[in-house]
Amino acid sequence: MILSIESSCDDSAIAITEIETCKLLFHKKISQELEHSVYGGVVPELAARLHAEALPKILEECKPYFDKLKAVAVTSSPGLAVTLIEGVTMAKAISVALGIPLLGVNHLVGHIYSLFIEKETMFPLTVLLVSGGHTQVMEVKSLSEISTIAKSMDDSFGESFDKVAKMMGLGYPGGPLIEQLALSGDRKKYNFTIPLMRIPKIAFSYSGLKNAARLAVESGAKEDYADIAASFEHVATAHIIHKLKKYFLINPPQSFAIVGGASANLYLRSQIEELLKPHGASLLLSELKYCSDNAAMIGRVAVEMYEKEIFSSLDVLDISPKSQL
Ligand code: KG4
Ligand code: ZN
To answer: Looking at the whole model, is its pTM more than 0.85?
Structure first.
């Protein structure tokens, strides 16, 4: 069995995965959404303190599995430096105490493998990752063959939802709140410009749209918020659809997946489903409970890394907050 730890942002999670079958034997996550909600976003210092409280509590519940552990895995990049270090320090301590190898897992690879929790992998795959930290398209052939096709030049898809929700005083995380509010709004009411329409490059940008939404919020009344949310969600999604359409002209998709916290967004899902139809491509999604950050996805990657003996040594494994794919 492998014990895996996730603490890259505001979720403290630990999982136990059986190596041979990929079966998830234990998974517990303690989210900090409530604590950060009053600030309209994640406060790193507070997040680190909450991890220091939550992780040992969850670990206590894993004690019955300790004598069966063959390795300990942890998210070591990318993420918030002060929160990554909480998980990495705990993983190193477990590795020393139990004399088992250490596996440093990339969080973005974790999101890709959230598709395969308790399942066989299925590659090749074109993957759209939409989370609080990332908006990127990747071609994935295997664990070690992941190429990034496009990414955001500034804010991410999820982050822009968080910021717009904060402007409206809705709370955190903003994604589900904006999605809910948008249901009662008119998507065409505000004519926000789709980002990067005239730039041929396949890339993403959300800072301009976020600022356009800010102007609308500042000059609008509370009754306009649903229309602003709906128009914002529509254009944020149209931007992704426009760039994917361009990319598919050169590289038609066969199997396409959406992963990351914002892949829970139903409007985005439905628009991508429509886009894939003429290509006859299949759409893969993670189970809803594994879209947002969790340790089960880290454990699933760890099984693959364990089999390939991609271990990290105690003195070499360090956090790498900005490392990408
Ligand atoms: O993957 P995740 O849990 O954490 C990161 O790795 O960043 O993603 C969290 C992000 C937040 O920005 C949250 O607002 C966004 O995903 N999100 C959504 C929705 N649910 C979560 N964004 C849009 N629509 C949603 N339904
Ligand atoms: Zn994530």
So the answer is: yes
Three-point CA angle 211, 131, 13, nearest 5°: 135
One-letter amino acid at 312 equals S
Predicted confidence (pLDDT) at residue 322 exceeds the cutoff of 90: no
- Each residue's pLDDT tens digit, 147-170: 999 999 999 999 999 999 999 999
When pLDDT is averaged across residues 126-148 and rounded to a whole number, the result is 97
Atom of ligand 1 lying closest to residue 158 CA:
12
Q: Which residues contact ligand 1 via a Cβ below 6 A?
A: 9, 131-133, 158-159, 161-162, 173-176, 179, 260-262, 264-265, 292-293
What structural domains does the chain harbor?
Answer: 2-117+290-307 (3.30.420.40), 125-285 (3.30.420.40)
CA distance 147 to 140: 7
Which pLDDT score, from 0 to 100, does residue 318 have? 81
* 293 CA: nearest ligand 1 atom: 3
The strands making up 135-142's β-sheet, listed across from edge to edge, are 145-151, 135-142, 125-130, 255-259, 282-285
Alpha carbon separation from 178 to 64, 229, 236, 262 (Å, rounded): 42, 6, 12, 11
